[in-house]
Design a protein that fits this description.
Blueprint lengths: L1 E3 L3 E2 L3 E9 L3 H9 L13 E5 L15 E5 L11 E6 L2 E8 L2 E9 L7 E7 L4 E8 L3 E2 L2 H7 L8 E2 L20 E11 L4 E13 L2 H7 L1
Length: 217
């Protein structure tokens, strides 16, 4: 299920692509962290979603670490991860390792764009945009389910039958009791073709099953 808000006009936003040397990535993230806007709410901080794609067969116990979704920390060890996203309400930085370089794409407000090499820039002003909510995989495990899974499960974990590992989302206050989690995504739309020309992650929001709430009253 996808829920959309009213379409608006993009102002002061852009799509930026470029590269940096792999060896400079840690310093780049330290610098980038200094220009991230302060969070207006503890429920809307800067988040990071990191993915590792090893070139060897993965043991069962290693699967849990292939995806890391947490509050952004520029001091975190990013070396084991192949790609990732760092996003907040006003912009998103996507990156992917390519040999000795890292390809970076930034989408969002101009004030928070990073400094890159070989830059290609596209203005998004004039495009319409709207926020849409998408369900993320997994339902929150209850106490009985946690007990059955055993020590490898943690309070607040989510699970999906089709995914062979537990799912962990950032410990935001608004997600504390959520049955499921939704991702708010900003989508930029060409009004003449109705096609999406760009998108970016913005924040996570909780989803509660309203039918259960109504039935319990």
């Amino acid at each position: 299920m996808v829920q959309a808000t009213q379409t608006k006009q993009a102002i002061g936003e852009l799509l930026l692509a470029g590269t940096i040397a792999d060896a400079d990535f840690a310093g780049f993230l330290q610098t980038y962290s200094s220009i991230i806007p302060p969070s207006t709410s503890p429920d809307s901080p800067t988040l990071m979603l990191l993915e590792a794609q090893p070139r060897h067969v993965i043991a069962q116990e290693e699967r849990q670490g292939l995806l890391h979704f947490a509050l952004f920390d520029p001091r975190f060890n990013f070396a084991p991860y192949t790609s990732g996203r760092i996003f907040h309400a006003l912009g998103e930085l996507r990156w992917e390792r390519q040999h000795s370089n890292i390809q970076i794409v930034y989408t969002g407000h101009k004030a928070y764009k990073p400094q890159l090499q070989d830059v290609k820039e596209t203005e998004l002003d004039g495009y319409a945009f709207e926020d849409r909510k998408y369900f993320l995989f997994g339902k929150r495990l209850d106490q009985e389910q946690l007990k059955r899974i055993g020590p490898r499960a943690q309070a607040g974990d989510f699970a999906e039958v089709r995914i062979p590992r537990l799912l962990r989302y950032p410990p935001l206050p608004t997600l504390a009791n959520a049955e499921r989690v939704q991702l708010v995504m900003c989508e930029y739309i060409d009004s003449t073709t109705a096609l999406n020309v760009a998108y970016r992650f913005k924040r996570l929001v909780p989803f509660h099953n309203q039918s259960k709430t109504i039935g319990a009253q």
